Amino acid sequence: MSSLESARGAHDETGPNTMTSMTPLPPVPREQLGTSRVLVVGDVMLDRYWFGDVNRISPEAPVPVVHVNRTEERLGGAANVARNAAALGVQTSLLCVIGDDEPARKLIELLEHSNVSAHVERDPELATTIKLRIVSRQQQLIRIDFENTPTHEVLLAGLARFDALLPTHDVVLLSDYAKGGLTHVERMIASARAAQRIVLVDPKGDDWARYRGASVITPNRAELREVVGRWHSEADLEQRVSKLRAELDFAALLLTRSEEGMTLFTDQGAVHEPTQAREVYDVSGAGDTVIATLAAMLGAGLPLTQAMAYANRAAGVVVAKLGTATVEYDELFQ
Question: Which segments constitute the Carbohydrate kinase PfkB domain (predicted)?
Fold first, then answer.
C-alpha cells in the first residue's frame, strides 16, 4: 500500500538479515500525533478485578478463601486497544458490538472517559463479554469468563458502519479476540485496502487466510508458532515468515517476543528491537499497547521501523503495571 511505504520499502540498515535497530527516538510532537486518525474494530470486553486478602483455606475444598476489599473495572480487548491509542493523543474511534446489559453500559461509560469515539452496534441477545480476575497480594488466583457470540444481523450492520467510517480514518486496526466481532474481517480488509488505508491486525487462531492483504500483522510467539510451526533458528524463522507473508500478502509481520523484545519482518529482511522492560509485573494487555502505539505512529506519518521502536518502548512501560493498562504520552517520551 502506498500509505505504508516503509512496510514494503527499504530500511537504512544493511548487514545480516536480523539486525538490531539503533534508530534514536526523539519525542513525536503532540500536534503530530493529534493528526493521526485510527479506527479500531474488534471484540470488546469488560475487565473486572476483585482484590482481596487470603488468610485461610476453605473447609469445603482445598482452595483459598479471598476476602474481597476492592474492585476495579477497566476496558478490555479492542476497547483497551482504543484506550491506548487515545492515551497518546490520537483521534481514536472504536467500532464494536455489545449487548444491552449492565456491563455494556459500563463499557460505554469507561469509553467516554477515555476520549474514544464509540460507534456501537447493540445486540439484545448478546451477553457483553466479561473477564473477571480475582487477585490477592499482586497474584492472580483465577480468571472467570462470561461470553457468547453476536448475531448475524448486527454484524452486517457493523459492516455497513465500517464502510461509512473508513473515509475519515488513516489507519484501520483490527483486534481479534475470537468473540465473533470480526466475522466479516475479509470484507473489511478488502475495503480498507481499496481505499489505500493502512491495516493492522492482531490475530487469533490458526486461520490467517482471513487476514489476507493486511499491511502489518502482530502475533506473539505462541500465535505465530500455531500457524508456521516450531522454528529451530532465526534463519528458519525468517524463512517461514517470508513464506507466510508471500502466501497471504502481508506487507510486514511484527513478532512480539516477550523478554526477547520484538522483530519486524519485511521484504528487506528482519529488524530486531531488544526488550526495554525494566520490571515485568503483568504482561496482560501488552499486545494491545504494542499495536495501538504502532497504529498511532503510522497514522502520524512515521516509518514502520521507527513506529516499531516506539511500540517496543511502550511495551516496556506497560508490563510494569497491573492488568490492562495504558501508556500516557509523557511516559512514552520521558
Answer: 37-326
Residue 93 within any structural domain of the chain: yes
Is 288 a known active-site residue? Answer: yes
Residue 65: inside a domain, yes or no?
Answer: no
What whole-number distance in Å separates Cα of residue 96 and Cα of residue 200? Answer: 16
What is the residue-wise DSSP string for 227-253? HH---SSHHHHHHHHHHHHHHHT-SEE
Confidence of residue 323 (pLDDT cuts 50, 70, 90): low
Residue 225 located in a structural domain: yes
Whether this prediction's pTM lies above 0.90 is answered by: no
Q: Domain total for the chain?
A: 1
287's CB contacts (< 8 A; 6+ apart) are 202, 218, 220, 256
The mean predicted confidence, pLDDT, of the chain is 89
Residue 28, pLDDT > 90, answer yes
- Domain ranges, residue 218: 2-45+75-129+149-332
The separation between the first and the last C-alpha atoms of the chain, rounded to the nearest angstrom, is 33
Q: Is the pLDDT of residue 8 over 80?
A: no
Q: Are 277 and 240 in contact (CB under 8 A)?
A: no
Q: Which of 47, 123, 170, 288 is catalytic?
A: 288
What pLDDT shows up at residue 122?
A: 93
